[in-house]
Design a protein that fits this description.
11% strand, four-stranded antiparallel sheet, alpha/beta, 594 residues, ABC_transporter-like_ATP-bd, binds 5-Methyluridine triphosphate, ABC transporter transmembrane region fold, Rossmann fold, membrane, nucleotide-binding, single chain, binds magnesium ion, ATP hydrolysis activity
Length: 594
């Protein structure tokens, strides 16, 4: 709870949070004003009743004169009306403060969420490689929601409780100093109980959260991999795991109930103790006529009201802690720097010719674990070059580097003689069309998945592109055609169809260069022919770099580059390589011997 530097709450994070609240200071002032009004009206009520009792009710007696009775009743009526007034004002200010506060809180949150999301989207690929998706989702949704608590409940309940406590203490001490001191003497007991309880329950909550996220992860992972589970008869094992986590959760929930069952009566006990003390001491005072009946009544009321803010303060402390933890996580996300940095003054080119040069390129995703070691090659404009090699050889990595998803550590990559670092990142990615190894389809329609909402890709472009890549026939056959729905991740499409859709998506924007990272999945011969034909048509008039797993893709390549453990092992045309009797020949024969 206390951080490394021994501070109760981290002032730096707190300061940064307040910066988000600052633009709304008017609303907060209004809220504080309303809370003040709420507290004053609420605290005035017992005092008004006491006034009626001590100054008017006591005067009434059975044999009183008619006129005097009417006079007293009139006075009582006025005070009663005032009481009603305090109730109404209290109600109104309570309503208004709640409304203003939540509106402000939600506005702050909206801005914060947008800022976080915007920032996350600007981050480089390497960030997403190392940060699990689930964590990011939690930060953007739950953690920001946690902060809402900070702005709505914490700030104001702190203020409200402190004002109430001070107000009640002042009233009690001024009404009767000794009675007041007596009530105050109970405060340490209640504080200690609350803090001890809060600490314990906090741990229970943490454990609950941990188990719950385990359950959630378990569910999402196993539900999405259900076919693998059923295929390998893992139901029983998976069920056991789930059952265990579920039981753990039940256990923690029961612990929570147990603690609450002790805590609430304990607080009640102290409160009753206070009232008993009050009656005992106050009763004595009443007999000795040092304490009036009205004051006794008012004290009982104030004791009841005194406990609430104290308990609530103890609670606030925990909310602050969890909100601060969330803020720290959000801020560390926002402080994350992008590793691929756009030039301040990028070179503008109309259309790239498509000459690609790798000049002694060294690259590692992390540290010194070299994935590419001193790779150099030149691809001339309009050429069709294929990369082959065993899995993990670094082929996809080369493709990532050409559209600059990562920066290389040594050497340089040039397109049309210009280092790619000098291009505008967006322009570069628009000029280089990439078909990734794993096709990703979004939930939506077929057309949306081809245009991707890019303003420079029209519906017509989408249709032309589909025709070019031979996707038109199967799209037309779908119910709804281009409007046919696509499920999340495109689960209802075959691997070949997904492949064709991703081709259409890529060529729809008419890129000057094409990168194909062929899927390893096996495809039926008919689709393979379609794909083969699509690739030939797509590669016409543009530099095409393809990672090929099927020899059919390579057959007409101008050049084949064979990768081995991050290095170029062989380079040449198909015939030259076959003659060399090296790695390529082995790969080639493996495929044709099947
Ligand atoms: C080459 C490592 C991978 C492999 C090597 C994408 C990626 C890869 N790697 C990382 O450490 N982090 C990453 O994000 O890099 O991987 P590749 O370039 O993907 O290999 P490939 O395309 O030749 O293989 P394949 O199976 O697609 O034919 O050691 O661990
Ligand atoms: Mg690959």
């Amino acid at each position: 709870m206390i951080n490394k530097r021994g501070q109760l709450i981290n002032t730096k994070v707190m300061g940064r949070l307040l910066r988000y609240a600052y633009p709304h200071w008017r609303s907060f002032f209004l809220v504080f004003g309303l809370i003040l009004l709420m507290t004053i009206t609420s605290l005035a009520q017992p005092r008004l009743v006491q006034w009626i009792i001590d100054n008017h009710l006591v005067n009434l007696s059975p044999g009183m004169e008619e006129g005097a009775v009417r006079q007293e009743l009139f006075q009582i009526g006025i005070i009663a009306l005032t009481y009603l007034g305090t109730v109404l004002i209290n109600f109104g200010s309570n309503y208004a403060h709640f409304w203003v506060l939540n509106k402000t809180g939600q506005t702050i949150l909206l801005n914060l969420r947008q800022e976080v999301y915007d920032h996350v989207m600007s981050l480089s690929m390497s960030f997403f490689d190392t940060n699990p998706l689930g964590n990011l989702v939690t930060r953007i949704t739950n953690d920001t929601e946690n902060l809402n608590e900070m702005f709505t409940s914490v700030l104001t309940s702190l203020f409200q409780n402190i004002v109430s406590i001070i107000g009640i203490i002042l009233i009690m001490l001024t009404m009767n100093f000794r009675l007041g001191l007596m009530v105050l003497a109970l405060t340490p007991a209640i504080l200690i109980i609350s803090f001890v309880f809060r600490n314990i329950i906090q741990k229970v909550y943490e454990e609950q959260r941990r188990i719950l996220s385990k359950i959630n992860n378990h569910l999402s992972e196993n539900l999405s991999g259900m076919n693998v589970i059923q295929m390998f008869h893992q139901e029983e094992k998976v069920y056991q795991e789930f059952d265990k986590a579920d039981r753990d959760y039940l256990r923690e929930s029961q612990r929570e109930v147990k603690y609450f069952a002790t805590y609430r009566p304990a607080v009640e006990l102290i409160r009753s103790l206070g009232i008993a003390l009050l009656l005992w001491y106050g009763g004595g005072g009443f007999i000795r006529e040092t304490i009036t009946f009205g004051i006794l009544y008012a004290y009982i009321e104030y004791i009841q009201r005194f406990f609430h803010p104290i308990l609530s303060l103890a609670e606030t402390y925990n909310v602050i802690q969890s909100a601060l933890t969330s803020s720290r996580r959000i801020f560390s996300l926002m402080d994350e720097k992008r590793t691929v940095i756009n030039q301040t003054d990028p070179i503008q080119v109309d259309r790239l010719m498509g000459k690609v040069e790798f000049d002694h390129v060294w690259f590692a995703y992390k540290g010194e674990e070299w994935v590419l070691k001193d790779v150099s090659f030149i691809i001339e404009p309009g050429e069709f070059v294929a990369f082959v090699g065993s899995t993990g050889a670094g082929k996809s990595s080369i493709m990532h580097l050409i559209s600059r998803f990562y920066d290389i550590q040594r050497g340089s990559i040039r397109i049309d003689g210009i280092d790619i670092k000098n291009f505008d990142e967006q322009q570069l990615r628009q000029a280089v069309g990439v078909v990734q190894q794993d096709v990703f389809l979004f939930g939506g329609t077929v057309e949306e998945n081809i245009t991707l909402g890019r303003e420079y890709v029209s519906r017509d472009d989408a249709i032309q592109a589909s025709k070019l890549v031979n996707a038109e026939t199967f799209i037309r056959r779908l119910p709804g055609g281009y409007e046919a729905p696509v499920m999340e991740r495109g689960a209802t499409f075959s691997a070949g169809q997904r492949q064709l859709l991703s081709y259409a998506r890529t060529v729809a924007a008419d890129p000057s260069m094409l990168i194909l990272d062929e899927a390893t999945a096996n495809i039926d011969t008919e689709t393979e022919l379609l794909i083969q034909d699509a690739i030939i048509k797509m590669s016409r008039n543009r530099t095409t770099i393809a990672v090929a797993h099927r020899i059919s893709t390579i057959a007409d390549a101008d050049k084949i580059i064979v990768m081995h453990h991050g290095e170029i092992a062989e380079e040449g045309t198909k015939d030259q390589l076959l003659e060399q009797d090296g790695i390529f020949r082995v790969l080639y024969e493996l495929q044709f011997d099947r």
